[in-house]
TrEMBL record, chains A, B:
Keywords noted in UniProt: ATP-binding, Kinase, Magnesium, Metal-binding, Nucleotide-binding, Thiamine biosynthesis, Transferase
Classification via Pfam families: AIRS (PF00586), AIRS_C (PF02769)
GO BP field: thiamine biosynthetic process; thiamine diphosphate biosynthetic process
Name of this protein: Thiamine-monophosphate kinase
Residues that, per the record, bind Mg(2+) 3: D28, D73, D207
Length: 316, 316
């Protein structure tokens, strides 16, 4: 149900974000024609104040993070963005300036990534602000990068650096030092790795949102391979030995985790470098297991305190 | 961010709802190929506990209502369903049996309407339960029914009966009498009017969710026509004169409001009756205004207490 106050709210903040097919956000649904002969890729993410962002995080980066997390899901599938829908459930007494900044951040990123708002819904809630964003993208049929295609012998790769976002959260939440705001920025404004031409090169892909080790477990289980990671090879901005575990198990990287046969190593590097995206080989897929093991330079296994890194509990 | 507990929750309740393209809800996004040569139709609705449904509403009908409200948006565009995505932000200590019943209701309606779950996200929240559902549908290019096509002289039609849902809410909330549960059921389980072959017949369409008079205002403004409604012609299950205003301005009908030239009257009736959907002519579009006026049998204007029925406030 849309209340009159919502029409004005939508018109003020969100109509300027709407693009072709959105019908000015005034019809029952959006209508768009996807590029001919392409498959559709769709994902949705929700964010809750106090859980996924902090009440004093700048409004301008919150919408950007939500949009970029979804764009990162498209990147993980090798898909290109088409548009998005947004729902906002806001507590009473909301600050209009907050939403103006929130929308301004979205406008910035729409321009950066070439997509527009297709539709949405706004409601009130008695609880904290809840946002959800559905993203639509497209990919050539049969060319989506899935999690289940890794094979024994494949190399394991990551883009960018791992652990910056987790350190950024500590900076913002616990006052860790961050001289130039680098880590805070990495936490607040992830960089979706869109546009890499990895079809036919990578055998599996996903974006790292919940921590490298846990997320590698998804590829391991989906593909039925073991994954061995050389801790020392994992590219980290902060190489402090005491932060190793945090970087390998903390979330909010939004880098890509990729597997590819050794014969594709140069092609994979070239595809990433064509987009100025650093990529690093960090390990290998092995037969006979479907878990993740992390090894130090001396070949000893590293065991992390965080539970669930080699398997998921049956229930919690 | 997906926590281990969420994997189990998703697997238990939502994986059984997933269909082709959903990749078992274990990949970064869903991949689907829309029917060739069709346009895509997308909409999203959010529902919040305590606002859109009551804490003691049966869980089995809550998911169905959310899905059906979205299907009603597709119906209003003349589109057919393709699939949906769901986000659940749930308070701590949630009752697993509640979600089992919620998912069972969705399973029932998936079978009824021929669609499956494509993807989703679950998070926690410290506030009330927040649900959002994104629906995808398809329509022949250029044949989506929009709100802006009504022309002076067009007749105004509604499907089904108007006001049942508003009375149902009074039954459930205020203890109004409801001998056989008819009105409560109409509130809880709306009937999306999918499948009506109205392209080329109706000039404008929308679904009535916020009350006939307010929603007619959307067509009036989008089309630049005045809409005159004969109160006495509006089909109502409860014809009690004292409930007229409630029925015409209350929400939760999820019937279609249609306009069509007089020459299409028989075609419109035939298209609705082919789907066993009652349809009734309730008024006319006129030139020179873009508001909604309701008239009694004696030709006197009916003015309702509820604000905003002829225009929206500039701001609230």
């Amino acid at each position: 149900m849309t209340l009159p106050a919502e029409f004005s709210f939508i018109g003020r903040h969100f109509r300027p974000l709407s693009g072709p097919g959105a019908l000015d956000l005034t019809d029952d649904a959006a209508v768009l024609t996807p590029p001919a002969g392409r498959s559709l890729v769709v994902a949705v993410d929700a964010m809750v104040e106090g859980l996924h962002f902090l009440p004093d995080d700048p409004a301008r980066t919150i919408g950007r993070k939500l949009l970029r997390c979804n764009l990162s899901d498209l990147a993980a599938m090798g898909a290109a963005p088409l548009g998005y829908l947004l729902t906002v459930s806001r507590p009473p007494g909301g600050d209009d300036a907050w939403f103006a900044a929130f929308a301004a951040g979205l406008a910035d990123d729409q321009a950066t990534f070439g997509l527009t708002l297709l539709g949405g819904d706004t409601t009130s809630t008695t609880g904290p602000l809840v946002l959800s964003l559905t993203i639509l993208g497209h990919v050539a049929p049969g060319q989506a990068l899935l999690r289940g295609g890794a094979r024994p012998g494949d190399d394991v790769w990551v883009t960018g650096t791992i652990g910056d976002g987790a350190i950024g959260l500590r900076v913002l939440r616990d006052g860790w030092p961050d001289r130039d705001g680098f880590f805070a920025d990495r936490y607040r404004v992830p960089r979706p790795r869109l546009g890499l031409a990895l079809a036919g090169i990578a055998t599996a892909a996903m974006d790292i949102s919940d921590g490298l080790v846990q997320d590698a477990g998804h590829i391991a289980r989906a593909s039925g391979v073991g994954i061995d990671i050389d801790a020392d090879r994992v590219p980290r901005t902060d190489r402090a030995p005491e932060h190793l575990e945090l970087c390998l198990t903390g979330g909010d990287d939004y880098e890509l985790l990729l597997t590819a046969p050794r014969t594709q190593a140069e092609a994979l590097r070239a595809a990433c470098h064509a987009c100025d995206v650093p990529v690093t080989r960090i390990g290998q897929c092995v037969a006979g297991r479907s878990d993740v093991r992390v090894w130090d330079k001396a070949g000893r296994p590293l065991l992390f305190a965080r539970p669930g890194w080699t398997h998921l509990p049956d229930d919690v």
